[in-house]
From TrEMBL:
Similarity comment: Belongs to the drug/metabolite transporter (DMT) superfamily. Small multidrug resistance (SMR) (TC 2.A.7.1) family.
Protein's name in the database: SugE protein
Organism the protein comes from: Leuconostoc kimchii (strain IMSNU 11154 / KCTC 2386 / IH25)
Transmembrane segments: 27-50, 57-78, 84-103
Any one Gene Ontology molecular-function term assigned to this protein's record: transmembrane transporter activity
Protein topology in the membrane: Multi-pass membrane protein
Taxonomy, superkingdom: Bacteria
C-alpha cells in the first residue's frame, strides 16, 4: 500500500500544479480551491508513504511522478512544445524513477 500512497501523491502533485495553472495566479476562486485540495491530498499521501519508505526514495519518486505527469498535461492540454532533446530527458526521468523503485529494496 505504501507505493500506492506514493504514486497517488505524485498524481495529486500533477492535479495541484495543473489547477494552479488554471487558477491564473490564484485569481480564479474554484481553481485556487482545487489547487489547495490537491496539495493537501498530495502531501497527505506522501506523508503516509514516508511511514514505510526512506525519504531518499520517496521524495525523488514523488517529484519525478509529478514532473513527468505535469509535462504530459502541459503538452496535451496547455499546448506546451518540447524538443526531441527534452523528450529524451523525460525518458531518462522515467528510467530513473523505475531504477529507484527496483533498487530501493522496499
Amino acid at each position: 500500500m505504501t507505493w500506492v500512497y506514493l504514486f497517488l501523491a505524485g498524481i495529486f502533485e500533477v492535479v495541484w500544479s495543473s489547477t494552479m495553472k488554471l487558477s491564473n495566479g490564484f485569481s480564479h476562486f474554484w481553481w485556487t480551491i482545487l489547487t489547495f485540495i490537491g496539495m493537501i491530498i498530495s502531501f497527505a499521501m506522501l506523508s503516509l508513504s514516508l511511514k514505510n519508505l526512506p525519504l531518499s526514495f520517496a521524495y525523488p519518486i514523488w517529484t519525478g511522478v509529478g514532473a513527468i505527469g505535469s509535462i504530459i498535461i502541459g503538452v496535451l492540454f496547455f499546448g506546451d512544445k518540447l524538443s526531441i532533446f527534452t523528450w529524451f530527458f523525460v525518458v531518462l526521468l522515467i528510467i530513473g524513477i523505475i531504477g529507484i523503485k527496483f533498487t530501493s529494496g522496499h
